[in-house]
Design brief:
Blueprint: E1 2-6, E2 16-20, E3 30-39, H1 42-49, E4 65-73, E5 85-88, E6 118-122, E7 126-128, H2 135-138, H3 141-152, E8 163-167, H4 171-182, E9 186-191, H5 197-202, E10 207-210, H6 217-225, E11 228-233, H7 240-246, E12 247-255, H8 270-273, E13 279-281, H9 288-300, E14 307-311, H10 316-324, E15 331-335
Parallel strand pairs: 8-9, 8-11, 9-10, 11-12, 12-13, 14-15
Antiparallel strand pairs: 1-2, 3-4, 3-6, 3-15, 4-5, 5-7
Helix pairs in contact: 3-4, 3-9, 6-7
Bound molecules: NADP nicotinamide-adenine-dinucleotide phosphate.
NADP nicotinamide-adenine-dinucleotide phosphate binds next to α1, α3, α4 and β9.
Length: 337
């Protein structure tokens, strides 16, 4: 079977090597998945570049996100049968409740991921897919989808009619936009590329601001909305101050990134923070039960993800390159081998 593996420490995309191995048969509690499609997340580029906080295993098969069918099961498997359509869970061992240090293994980082013809998964690491999704669509939810879902759900979930702010048009932001609309919220979106404004409106954004044209967009948003109730902050240093200004007095910011590619960190401006009772929190993607809850909502609403571009398996490096240049709208997908 063909798989890409991350080899060596340096070299960027040259580290991504195609390897041919024998197909592994699943152990007693494992399933063998024929991978039909995968997709990229920002963390995959950080793992490639050696900037991800969790150290990847040498020679790992990259990518947390993938969809495929079960083609063989071990003798003791009870959750799945041959023919089931499945995807993997990001923190494979985190089933429910709070995460702890024993549960940090991640697909495509410390555990082999999806960028291969087949993936062998413990049956506890996988979940069933909604039927309305094709393989490309089904391969996009594990990381970005669940992160957006976790940011928008839980005890402090925004209520129908409240304002949610999403930043840009990456994977997390577009899922957050779609899920917030499902929940009956109003959505404000900002983008660094004005030409994407119409597409954000077409996805349901009630208010869109191009940040290059309106650098003080925080105050504009605050005036227009009465204050943002929840911000899914994917911009980091470039956007955090304006997000804080845009927030309502008791607003909440789920801060998903604190550093940009140049190493600059988010700063909290004292003058703004002193006037604010905003809660700043974060999430770590989510557990398997969160993934199941999200996919149940996706199935009920027949929600489809936004796909930017699909690359053939043989052009995985091109897919990474396209994703890394930054001008995307939705998910970058790689076809199965
Ligand atoms: N903690 C967690 O669990 C977790 C999980 C997943 C992701 N994350 C983090 O969340 C971030 C987003 O992830 P992703 O996979 O969605 O990334 P992505 O696909 O790379 O999203 C990047 C988008 O951000 C927008 N952007 C960049 N600069 C901007 C600016 N100055 N103003 C407004 N928008 C700007 C761009 O959209 P426009 O072209 O429209 O401006 C770009 O498409 C990453 O930093 C990632 O590491 C954290």
């Amino acid at each position: 079977m063909q798989s890409y593996r991350l080899e060596g420490q340096d070299g960027g995309l040259d580290r991504l090597a195609m390897r041919e191995d024998a197909v592994v048969q699943p152990g007693p509690r494992q399933i063998l998945m024929r991978v039909r499609a995968t997709s990229l997340n920002r963390r995959d580029t950080m793992i490639l570049n050696g900037t991800y906080p969790l150290t990847p295993r040498a020679g790992i098969v990259p990518l947390s996100d993938g969809a495929g069918e079960v083609v063989a099961v071990g003798d003791d498997v009870t959750r799945f049968a041959v023919g089931d359509r499945v995807t993997g869970s990001y923190f494979a061992r985190w089933i429910d409740g709070r995460i702890n240090a024993g549960l940090i293994d991640q697909l495509g980082c410390t555990l082999d991921g999806m960028l291969g013809e087949y993936a062998v998964l413990d049956e506890q690491w996988a979940v069933r897919l909604p039927e309305h999704l094709d393989w490309h669509e089904a391969a996009t939810f594990t990381c970005a989808g669940l992160t957006a879902w976790s940011a928008l759900t839980g005890a402090d979930a925004p209520k129908p009619g409240q304002w949610v702010l999403v930043i840009g048009s990456g994977g997390v932001a577009l899922f957050a936009l779609q899920f917030a609309k499902l929940m009956g919220c109003r959505v404000a979106a900002v983008t660094s590329r004005a030409e994407k404004s119409d597409r954000l409106r077409a996805l349901g954004a009630d208010l869109v601001i191009a940040t290059a044209e309106t650098p003080d967009w925080g105050m504009k948003l605050r005036e227009a909305t009465g204050g943002i109730d929840l911000t899914v902050e994917t911009g980091g240093p470039a956007t955090f101050m304006q997000s804080l200004i845009a927030s309502s007095l008791y607003g909440r910011i789920v801060l998903l990134t604190v550093q940009d590619q140049k190493g600059r960190s988010v700063e909290i401006p004292a003058a703004v923070y002193q006037r604010s009772l905003v809660t700043i929190g974060r999430v770590f993607v989510g557990s398997r039960s969160g993934l199941e809850a999200m996919l149940a909502a996706v199935a009920a609403h027949r929600l489809k993800p936004v796909i930017d571009k699909i690359f053939p398996f043989a052009e995985a490096r091109e897919a990474y390159r396209h994703f890394m240049q930054g001008d995307v709208f939705g998910k970058v997908v790689i076809d199965g081998a």
